[in-house]
Amino acid sequence: MFPRESFRQEVVAPTLDYFAALKKRWGMSISAMIFRSYNLGMIDNFERADLYKKLTRRGWRGPLQEPFDGPTDMPLEKPRMLRRGLDVVIGEGYSRANIRSAICLPDKEVEQIIGLPEGYFNTADVVHLASPKPKASLRAVDIESGEIIEFPQRK
Predict the structure, then answer these.
(1) Within a 13 Å sphere around the CA of 42, how many CA atoms are in the beta-carbon half?
(2) What is the pLDDT of residues 120-138, one digit of tens each?
(3) What is the pLDDT of residues 9-35, one digit of tens each?
(4) Where are the domains of the chain?
(5) Alpha-carbon gap, residue 10 to 30, rounded angstroms
């Protein structure tokens, strides 16, 4: 999450206030920055323990306790690739009901993971009167390897 060289260059003084200032830029918790500083040998075990104690004294330990943890200060990232993939699958003729039955997770969780509006799977599919020409297969490109992945057309 923290590239070694970039993190070393940006962390001039490994203090809580400095980490708090960097938090918005990096989008990572202060606790994670303390650990990464220790991991890279920028601070020793004593300094790491001291920073964690200070973090606790300031009341910055625990979920949503650090500065800039609120949704207005640092909004959650919205996934883009999963949503694009879902749009492609729906564009190929799969219904929301088909997708819903193929994924073994509760609707709310799928909506949160993909970044869909709440109740996305509870709305009715649009029925098209004219059917599109059948395509041989659905194709996607694996971003990491560049390999083309083909999915057979469902009947």
Answers:
(1) 20
(2) 888 765 656 666 666 666 7
(3) 888 889 999 998 888 888 888 899 999
(4) 4-57, 81-152
(5) 14
